# Entry
Amino acid sequence: MGQPEQRAEGAGPFTTRLTWRPPGGGTAVWESRPARRRGVIAVRPPGAPAGSHTSADTLAVRRLRLLNAIAATAFVIGGALFAAGAGVAQFGSGDATTCASIYFAGGLFFNTGGYVSLLQVVNAPRHDPGGEGRLVTPPWRWWSYEPTRMDWLSVFVLFVGTLVFGVNLLDSFLQGLSVQQVNRLIWVPDVIGCMLFLLSGHLGFAEICHGRWLPCLRRRSLGWWIVAVNQFGSVLFMISAIAAYTRPATDSLVNADIANWGTLLGATCFSLGGALQYFERP
# Structure
């Protein structure tokens, strides 16, 4: 930073908020989510009122807006397709192949949303290492490996979860499987994907709460609401996955109604989270 930082906050080894004094005086506050999602950093010059901020440059803002729009649209459509697939399964208006096809199409949109969300983190503006209280736009990258950043780790886990769901969705097209094969090839990836979604949401809460591993309450934060809605959807997905286990003794699901309704409502949450994401932009 070029000078001692006043305070670093975060959870465990992760830093999610930095507060320091720029050379010209006043204070500057970098927070992980506002910087990468909205391209802003809070700067309070001497004598200025609280709430002042400086934005990233035009290139960064243009990037962030485009990536945010693509990711939000992908999650809205992906969630809607998953909800439609669950509706078809629940109300019996289509066969298993039709449901699997709708789910698979939704999974492709979830894959897209997950990867574009990762691009948002990879290409997010970074705080000025010189301590001037401004954001610097890095060169464009399609990938990075930054496991020491909580925002990167949260979105990476989400993206991996969408890929694991893809395995589950592809295997659902297989015919003539035994109960053991169904549970191993379809149910296990489903549960693993749900666990990764839950872990990603938990890391998202930790990023917003700055040092608290348990979810905090930030009712005035749009980012908090997006994470909360998506996490609730992940909980419903997990409930659905547990209910979708095929019992070897009866060759039937634990509870098909809970499995279908959990997927439908969980997918609706992700669509809602995507819609809210349209408003969390530079």
